[in-house]
Hints:
By secondary structure, the chain is mainly β. It has helices at 8-11, 13-26, 28-34, and strands at 45-47, 62-67, 71-73, 79-83, 86-87, 94-96, 107-111, 120-125, 129-132, 136-138, 150-153, 155-157, 165-169, 174-176, 180-185, 190-192, 196-199, 205-206, 211-213, 225-230, 240-245, 249-252, 256-258, 270-273, 277-278, 296-298, 304-306, 311-312. It has a 4-stranded antiparallel β-sheet, with no helix packed on it. One 2-acetamido-2-deoxy-beta-D-glucopyranose binds next to strand 19. Residues 35-96, 97-153, 154-214, 215-273 form the Sushi domain. Keywords: Disulfide bond, Repeat, Signal, Sushi. Pfam families: Sushi (PF00084).
Amino acid sequence: MVDSEQVLGCKAPMGLVLVLLLSSLLGPLGQAQAQDCEKPMRYTMSLTGEHIQKEHFPNGLVVTFECATGYRSTGGSGKTTCAAGTWTTSTLSCEKFNCGSLELVNGHVEYSEGTSFGSVATFSCKDGYILSGREKLTCGNTEWLGRTPTCSVVKCDSPPSVDKAEGPSPKRDLYDFASVVRYKCQKDYTINGSASLKCSSNGKFTPNPPTCLMVRCNAPFIPNGSQKSGALPSYVHRSLVEYECNPGFKMEGKGVLICQLNSTWSSTSECKAIIITTTPTTTTTTPTTMTPKTPATTQKDGSVVILYYIVYY
Length: 313
Ligand SMILES: *[C@@H]1O[C@H](CO)[C@@H](O)[C@H](O)[C@H]1NC(C)=O
Ligand SMILES: *[C@@H]1O[C@H](CO)[C@@H](O)[C@H](O)[C@H]1NC(C)=O
Ligand SMILES: *[C@@H]1O[C@H](CO)[C@@H](O)[C@H](O)[C@H]1NC(C)=O
């Protein structure tokens, strides 16, 4: 950024008008003061030597600017002369110092105002990495003020071994983020849970290690039914048997039983007695009471109506 602004203190036309006005009012006395300059000010520059403290800048005085802290000269001279109340133009131009960009392996850098003087760099690591060092650095006059942090990979301690299982494999003391370990249950044992675990960004393996179970279901039994097909003893995990009901009974449920992880059979199938409905005639479907009554009634007109009773068992 090159700043080529004019001497601020001496360019305001209102000030100049006021000075001229005053000098005309005060006569010879005012005339002498009107030739002085106000303190010269520039945003990217500062006065050198003894002029920094000065308050009085008489006509003919030569002062020198240099680039302010955090700025670098890109050429020109900082000399300026007070000439009848106005500072002459100087050629010095100053540029904000640039610290250059920073690199963070396995992370990300964000800058508040680019990479120049005064900007703040903020560091963050990608998932599975931890920042060691300072989270923020400021670009100073000559360099970034402080050491760039680093991103180190998250480590997980080894998950425990599991009874009746091989693993975790591979076997290590520490695992890097995203490493996967596996367990395998011994013969005749069934895994309950996940066979593989992953080192997550919180430094722990997930999910929890599995367990290995000896699954054995007892002989299945459905009252008033018998096994039609399926597994024979011993009944292990996922053994499946299919039942049918004895004559006079019908299946409620699927009639399929599966040996579960907790060594119990799934399903609540039942054989229910079939309800036999006797209908001597189909002339009526109106249900009536179960109590047999007089089979015939003599009506007023003398005709005989035969009543049929439907008996529900
Ligand atoms: C149906 O099962 C029950 C219980 O097992 C038993 O007491 C009953 O005798 C069986 N009924 C028939 C008709 O087999
Ligand atoms: C299987 O593992 C889960 C989770 O740890 C547990 O809640 C459940 O009781 C286990 N099942 C058996 C049959 O042990
Ligand atoms: C066994 O597991 C099944 C399915 O998870 C469950 O419905 C049942 O209540 C369990 N039985 C026992 C005795 O724990």
